[in-house]
Amino acid sequence: MRVFLDSDVLLDYLTARKPFVEEIKIIINKGIIGELKLFTSSLIIANIHYFISKAENSRKAIYKIEKLISFIKILNVGEKEIIQSLKSKFKDFEDCIQNCCASNSTMDLIITRNIKDFKLSDLPILTPKEFVTQLENR
Fold this sequence. Notes:
138 residues, alpha/beta, five-stranded parallel β-sheet, 7 helices, 5 strands
């Protein structure tokens, strides 16, 4: 299964944000052992660097991104995704870029805590908790 992870859930993982970290840790661990293929976008990596640098420092941000890219594939955001997003009816431009990136890369679903901003997506959108529940019920 090809799973696209949004920035909020990756930040939950990298900053151990409670109470959200437990479900995303389960998903990440399934990616590490090869049960899932995990993806994110190059734009999300830049966002993560920005947020962690502000909250902690740039060196920690780089360390955490290096850890992240050891088990997650990074998809490029290009002109196609930007043009699609400019023409979209998504309310949030950045979320639309993520959706286009995931959709164009044939992801099976997007995992985010920001469900409402992805309501126009053609992909299934789940919270980490919803996804973990689905995995447990298989």
